[in-house]
Amino acid sequence: MILETISTILLLLGAFFGLTGAIGLFKFPDFFTRVHAASVTDSIAAILIISGLILRTDFDLVAAKLLFILIFLLLTSPTASHALAKSARHGGLLSLAETRANNQEASSTKEGNN
Amino acid sequence: MSFIVDYYNYWIVVFLMMAGFYIVISATNLVKKVVGLNIFQTSVFMMYITMGKVSGGSAPIVAEGITSYSNPLPHVLILTAIVVGVATTAVGLALIVRIKRAYGTVEENEFEDKEDLI
Amino acid sequence: MAEFIDLVLLGMLAITALGVIILKDLFAVVMLFGIYSFLSALIFVNLDAVDVAFTEAAVGAGISTVLMLGTLALTGRKEKVGSHTSWLPLVVVVITGGALIYGTLDMPAFGDPNNPIHQHVAPRYIEESPKEVGLPNMVTSVLASYRAFDTLGETAVVFAAAIGVLSLLGLPKPDRRAVESGLKSHLVLRVVAKLIIPLTILFALYVQFHGDYGPGGGFQAGVIAAAAVILYALVFGLPLATHVVQPTWLKVLAALGVLIYAGTGVASLFLGGSFLDYNVLASDPVAGQHIGIIVIELGVGITVFAAMLSIFYAFAGQAEGKNIQ
Q1: Which structural domains are found in chain B, ordered by start?
Q2: Distance, CA of B5 to CA of C1 (rounded, Å)
Q3: Whole-prediction pTM value?
């Protein structure tokens, strides 16, 4: 009974973090912050949901398979976010702070020349 | 209400089929046409699997204590269909790569009047 | 409750299809197609079709998306805005859709066990296959034993597709000099890939031989093993990958798989039964069925692995030639 309540709480928390990750994907202003929001879904939501599911099994082969899935997800999802951010950086994408600094420099040099 | 639940699957399948059909006949880019064809194929798979489902049944794997199984025959047919679909897609995409090399473009209305550059 | 999940997932699928129609950036369209495949796999699990969900996730969201991205690297990302009228296709589509919806009103209700589809052949498979074939996974027993001839045709189609792509595009020549190229600076990717690739190949072998007892089988295993080598080629570079798994071997393996499958059928002809009748392969019919199914699933797995990998090599070889990373 108490295992069921704990697993329900874990599943609901995992769903909440997944939802906030999805909302962040829309609301954040810049590419790199959006990648961070998406990777929240991959890491913390996956851990919470899979732990909640493990508590619902009888701790047999199914629980071991769920554990393997969790390890695999924790290996691959942060790597995917890293690869995304690294290739964006390699392609020359600037973060929001750097773009604003560039625009300020450009407008101040224009005023200086005028 | 039960009328909607009975037929909702089929209506969504028809919607997806028509979406795929619309992409195939109206897109000018050949890669988008192939994507539309794949959407059409997957909607057909959904229809077969929907027909094979039995309420209250389980997956067609023999296990103790289960009396009612979903129908395994549509699953077999759709397994074959999925693999044949990807084979067709691969050949279609290879043809698109060759068309690009021959005509320089993959937009449908641009290469209809071009000479064969090969 | 299960119907509610079904409704929500199908709604999301419809929205994804609308997104594919509206968007002009082809890269986003291909990504949406991958999402569409994954959502379909979820719906298949909800409809108790676990083998089909496995295959759709591996093949649709894996191989199809990779091949489309490879094509986009060669043909360009943006779709040009159409100049011809777009109302005529819309009218045709609406009329056809209306006629089809009128047709679906005659279909039997969803999920009813008394539907005609569940009445004739399916009860025989469900009741007799544990006794005649003896495998828990009924889909594998129908696919590999009762309808083995269709599966032979399917393997031949995969082989023919590989031949078609190879004759159109050609394989890359193994290049001895450029073996050290690749993503040298991407340390995280290289380390994680070295961890994951052996586990993926092990999982492919597990799926191949466990297909008799759970979801799985030759097709899924071949696709997963090909995905492992594709990951190796993406992280370490195509010349190194062609050095490890050589293209000439792939041509031999693809033909070998079909030969194993058809050879089993011919062997059962020589042993006194009909073509692809496994009962004569051993003294006990059920043991003969088990032997026959394992051998042909092996043939299918080998052919699918070799075909998918050689198709990927053909596409990637074109991109290498044009110097795109």
Answers
A1: 2-111 (1.10.287.3510)
A2: 12
A3: 0.91
